């Protein structure tokens, strides 16, 4: 690394590259090249599958692995029951998939596999991906809302106890805040993941360039940056969990709106 | 920023593969495996609560049994005490009546004996009197040469015996 006068581009980690040979794959005129992004989605699914498979032993007295998986399902179950109530249980499969998919993707993207030549790709740092997930969640909210309440679902935009003269003012504001939800949902995750990864890359470029510039710079710039990187890496692991949690929590809150209106 | 720079060429592949892989996650893991995991948890919970209920029922039954045993035990003890008391009473009554019988017998014997003693004494006294009368006659005849009739002698003896 040092020999090639490393020039660290903090954005390069987000570049999508088709895996050799799949460049030209098309479906109905759309390019569906199997990219490094798709590759890591596959890895995420496999890791998640193996994780949950380990919890399927169905023993009465659970082992550690089964306990861990049951902790996660119980966590989602409790969250949905707390936010939605008894009807929330039927959303467990979706919210669990969403939460675990994002969580595993975030954590896999943080793995220091670069040192063995594999470059992790955090697909949750792409708003195309987070956007699709947000749209799926939002669609579920709309479908459930209109399915359960019909046109009465629009009363969501008039909170309880709003004085009649205020309705024309309140309703548009509520409507806008409602329509902003998928964007905030998608952007929050995308921004949090991207910012963390950029920060880590920038700091790593400080470490590399500082050390290459000589012992003085290495001690003055490189070492503190390295120590900071360790701290920020720990923070990023926390953020990975928190962002997955926030995504799942907000989805469950929005579903609650659709289930119960206000 | 590759997210925007590559948007036009990569969005379709991103969306396509995300739908594929998230679809697999949802249908295979979310709908296929998670309910089974939760089933296991629910099964365990119901098993635990069932076991707890069974244990509680067993404890309650044991408590009830102990209570019943205690009541019965108390009854038995009371009955035993009643029997003992009755036996004691009976024994006391029997011994008392026996004692009474013995006492009466003794009293009777004593009374008989006293009567016999009294009779014997009277008989002895009469004998002493008659002997004394004869002796007095003999003494008078010998000393004074006077013949005293028996009644006179008897009268004198009686007087003498009374005066000592």
Automatic annotation (TrEMBL), chain A:
<dbReference type="InterPro" id="IPR045083">
    <property type="entry name" value="ATP_synth_F0_asu_bact/mt"/>
</dbReference>
<comment type="function">
    <text>Key component of the proton channel; it plays a direct role in the translocation of protons across the membrane.</text>
</comment>
<keyword id="KW-1133">Transmembrane helix</keyword>
<feature type="transmembrane region" description="Helical">
    <location>
        <begin position="213"/>
        <end position="230"/>
    </location>
</feature>
<keyword id="KW-0472">Membrane</keyword>
<protein>
    <recommendedName>
        <fullName>ATP synthase subunit a</fullName>
    </recommendedName>
</protein>
<keyword id="KW-1003">Cell membrane</keyword>
<feature type="transmembrane region" description="Helical">
    <location>
        <begin position="237"/>
        <end position="255"/>
    </location>
</feature>
<keyword id="KW-0375">Hydrogen ion transport</keyword>
<keyword id="KW-0138">CF(0)</keyword>
<dbReference type="Pfam" id="PF00119">
    <property type="entry name" value="ATP-synt_A"/>
</dbReference>
<feature type="transmembrane region" description="Helical">
    <location>
        <begin position="91"/>
        <end position="115"/>
    </location>
</feature>
<keyword id="KW-0813">Transport</keyword>
<feature type="transmembrane region" description="Helical">
    <location>
        <begin position="37"/>
        <end position="56"/>
    </location>
</feature>
<dbReference type="InterPro" id="IPR035908">
    <property type="entry name" value="F0_ATP_A_sf"/>
</dbReference>
<keyword id="KW-0406">Ion transport</keyword>
<keyword id="KW-0812">Transmembrane</keyword>
<dbReference type="InterPro" id="IPR000568">
    <property type="entry name" value="ATP_synth_F0_asu"/>
</dbReference>
<feature type="transmembrane region" description="Helical">
    <location>
        <begin position="185"/>
        <end position="207"/>
    </location>
</feature>
<feature type="transmembrane region" description="Helical">
    <location>
        <begin position="127"/>
        <end position="147"/>
    </location>
</feature>
<keyword id="KW-0066">ATP synthesis</keyword>
<comment type="similarity">
    <text>Belongs to the ATPase A chain family.</text>
</comment>
């Amino acid at each position: 690394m040092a020999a090639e006068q490393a020039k660290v581009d903090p954005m390069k980690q987000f570049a999508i590259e088709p895996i050799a040979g799949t460049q030209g794959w098309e479906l109905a005129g759309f390019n569906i090249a199997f990219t490094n992004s798709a590759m890591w989605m596959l890895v995420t699914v496999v890791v998640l599958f193996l994780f949950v498979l380990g919890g399927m032993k169905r023993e009465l007295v659970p082992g550690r692995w089964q306990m861990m998986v049951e902790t996660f399902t119980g966590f989602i179950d409790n969250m949905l029951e707390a936010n939605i109530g008894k009807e929330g249980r039927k959303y467990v499969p979706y919210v669990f998939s969403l939460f675990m998919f994002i969580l595993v993707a975030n954590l896999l993207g943080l793995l220091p596999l670069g040192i063995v030549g594999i470059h992790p790709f955090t697909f949750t740092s792409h708003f195309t991906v987070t956007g699709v997930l947000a749209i799926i969640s939002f669609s579920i909210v709309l479908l459930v809302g209109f399915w359960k309440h019909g046109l009465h679902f629009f009363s969501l935009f008039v909170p309880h106890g709003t004085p009649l003269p205020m309705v024309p003012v309140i309703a548009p504001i509520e409507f806008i805040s409602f329509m902003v939800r998928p964007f905030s949902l998608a952007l929050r995750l995308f921004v949090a993941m991207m910012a963390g990864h950029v920060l880590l890359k920038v700091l790593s470029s400080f470490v590399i360039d500082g050390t290459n510039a000589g012992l003085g710079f290495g001690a003055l710039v490189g070492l503190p940056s390295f120590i900071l990187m360790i701290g920020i890496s720990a923070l990023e692991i926390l953020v990975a969990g928190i962002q997955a949690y926030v995504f799942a929590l907000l989805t469950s809150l929005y579903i609650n709106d659709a289930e119960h209106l206000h | 920023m590759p997210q925007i720079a590559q948007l036009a060429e990569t969005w379709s592949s991103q969306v396509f593969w995300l739908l594929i892989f998230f679809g697999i996650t949802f249908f295979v893991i979310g709908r296929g495996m998670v309910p089974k995991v939760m089933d296991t948890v629910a099964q365990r919970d119901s098993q635990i609560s069932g076991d707890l209920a069974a244990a509680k029922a067993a404890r309650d039954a044991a408590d009830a049994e102990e209570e019943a045993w205690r009541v019965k035990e108390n009854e038995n003890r009371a009955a035993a005490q009643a029997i003992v008391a009755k036996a004691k009473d009976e024994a006391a009554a029997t011994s008392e009546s026996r004692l009474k019988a013995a006492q009466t017998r003794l009293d009777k014997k004593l009374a008989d004996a006293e009567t016999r003693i009294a009779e014997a004494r009277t008989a002895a006294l009469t004998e002493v009197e008659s002997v004394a009368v004869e002796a007095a006659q003999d003494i008078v005849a010998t000393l004074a040469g006077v013949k005293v009739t028996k009644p006179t002698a008897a009268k004198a003896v009686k007087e003498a015996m009374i005066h000592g």
